[in-house]
Amino acid sequence: MELSLSPTSHRVPSTIPTLNFAKLSSTKATTSQPLFLGFSKHFNSIGLNHHSYRCCSNAVPKRPQRPSSIRACTGVGAAGSDRPLAERLLDLKDACWRFLRPHTIRGTALGSFALVARALIENTNLIKWSLLFKAFSGLFALICGNGYIVGINQIYDISIDKVNKPYLPIAAGDLSVQSAWFLVIFFAAAGLSIAGLNFGPFIFSLYTLGLFLGTIYSVPPLRMKRFPVAAFLIIATVRGFLLNFGVYYATRASLGLAFEWSSPVVFITTFVTFFALVIAITKDLPDVEGDRKYQISTFATKLGVRNIAFLGSGILLVNYIVSVLAAIYMPQAFRRWLLIPAHTIFAISLIYQARILEQANYTKDAISGFYRFIWNLFYAEYAIFPFI
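Structure tokens predicted for Homogentisate phytyltransferase 2, chloroplastic:
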């Protein structure tokens, strides 16, 4: 996909009177909220940042779009350069946080904490406070890898995002393409350096493989996201296998232990790999309009929104049924009192949300809500994992 941007369908017609940008800037200044690491008081009850999931263009206040000169992406605050420096810096921080796609960072961070916690629970006698810095450096490396993958995708999807996700910072003109490239290069360099210097050649190889898969997913000429099967296999491999296996392996190595599979780790790796398949196919549900416009082939564009919603729900239900059966037939490996009721509740909640989606006739708002719920189930699985 080319990076050049054409004016969007929301471009302000030339017949509209000249806009008072000073007034717009003043309004924005009074409504912006300072963020600390992206965690604002606008978090909703499930802890999601208010920018993370706006999947409908009508959810974002419409503002005048800069004409095709936006392809130069002059950056944050270009239209309000007379505003105080502190406010422009806050806007830049907000744009960078949205660029990181916070919901994916939460999944990565929560998964890492859960797997490290599991390894420590299994070997409490080997816990050393001296390893704390190494653990946090590993988490930072994972966040950098996550930022690189979602960032490179946004750089090569600007035109599509103007239709599907106009709230993303590059598509909205809040972050320049040059700044985005600086960020993804920094993420890649920092992540590779940390992995290579702290976790040995094997983890470095796994980390490099993850970045490579994230690159070919988005970057021409391969751009594997054009092919539905290849796309969801890449997502499942990176978020399912590489993350779980890599973090658990690195934690045991830091404790001085050889790698060894345990029943809970086999369970979460398998479970999350299939869950990542569901995320891979349902993530395109809100994006059908833009994907069709730019001829991006996804399961949603090929099979239809309703069929994909049912397919994703079906795969998750099988996941939950197998989890309950594992607890019943392997009581020595799992805590029945937690695994069975938790997954029963998750399954019932999923059926209820699928019913709400059906009753809403698969509107874009309803689809976006359903996709948010899928991610909440993902977080919930990792939250209970250390204790199963």
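DSSP finds 14 helices and no strands in the chain.
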